[in-house]
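Dear support,

I submitted the protein below through the web form. The confirmation email said the job was done, but the results page showed an empty box. After a refresh the structure appeared. I'm attaching both so you can tell me whether what I see now is the final result or a partial one.
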Amino acid sequence: MQVREYGNFLRINLSEVLTGSTVTLELYRPNSSTPIVITTSNGLLIGSLDIEVKGKTYTAFEYIQYQIAEGVIDVEGIWSAVATVADSGGTTFRITKKLKFTVTDC
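What the results page shows now:
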């Protein structure tokens, strides 16, 4: 991924059925503890189709995906992402480990 790139998908396989859950994705810029919070109100989706990407299978309703919006990826370096899953009552029952990805300058 490159700085200022947008339109690509960031997917996280959570390997459990997410129907009825509230999911939040937090993106962290390099050397920052302040997240960019992505929810269903600003682009986060629970994948509803089985798909295969680069040999990896994503099962419907068990993964989240975010189509990166213009202006979000704004600095190079090692970024991280954390997904949080809560039940319909708002109780958090899963937080993923930090997943890292590299952003290079154009």
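Response: this is the final, complete result; the empty box was a page-load delay. The mean pLDDT is 95.
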